[in-house]
Specification:
The chain is of the alpha+beta class and 186 residues long. The protein has six helices and five strands. The protein has a five-stranded antiparallel sheet with strand order 2-3-1-4-5.
């Protein structure tokens, strides 16, 4: 293979990598840029596993290729943070679960640093990670909402059934009183 063939192969590989990022990472509405400098390989592997369990993705990027991929996309608003060692943790579903994973992992691994964040396509300060991590998950919020919606119905059923219970208790008391009075009369 000649030198021109090697350059074309490399250029094609880079173009494919940019295209792959454009179809995945660049489209993400929720993302965290991470500086992973100082993390060991087992720690990064554990981070990837935890992020995956939160239905999210983690990818290490080459800054120059990432900048090409995110141009004109929401993630492009964070372009000044694409310096040094950069990993992107992103989610298309539950950003709170991802934030909790990153926050918890950051407590045990101080070398993990969040450079910047993107929430709903808007840049957010990295320090907001803790606030986001302390929010209840989507599942918790849905269950709370259902509980609130069911509460008035339960109360209505209780109020509507109270007169029937009271009548039944009154009739039982009258019956008991009559049976006692007939025993005393006899």
């Amino acid at each position: 293979m000649n030198a021109a063939g090697t350059v074309n192969a490399t250029r094609n590989a880079k173009n494919e990598e940019v295209a792959a990022m454009e179809s995945t990472v660049a489209k993400a509405a929720h993302a965290f840029l991470i500086d992973y400098k100082g993390l060991t390989v087992p720690a990064v592997t554990d981070l990837r596993r935890q992020i995956k369990s939160a239905n999210s993705e983690y990818v290490v990027v080459k800054n120059t290729l990432a900048l090409r991929a995110i141009e004109g996309k929401p993630l492009g608003s964070l372009k000044e943070h694409f310096t040094g060692m950069t990993g992107i943790a992103y989610s298309t579903k539950d950003v709170v679960a991802l934030a909790k994973v990153l926050h918890t992992f950051g407590k045990t691994n101080p070398n993990l640093k969040v450079k910047a964040a993107l929430l709903d396509g808007k840049p957010v300060a990295a320090k907001e990670l803790e606030t986001l991590a302390n929010l209840p998950s989507r599942l918790e919020l849905v269950s709370r909402l259902l509980g609130l919606m069911q509460s008035p119905m339960r109360r209505l059923v209780t109020v509507l059934s109270a007169p029937h219970r009271n009548i039944a208790a009154t009739l039982a008391a009258i019956s008991l009183q009559k049976s006692k009075s007939t025993e005393h009369a006899a």
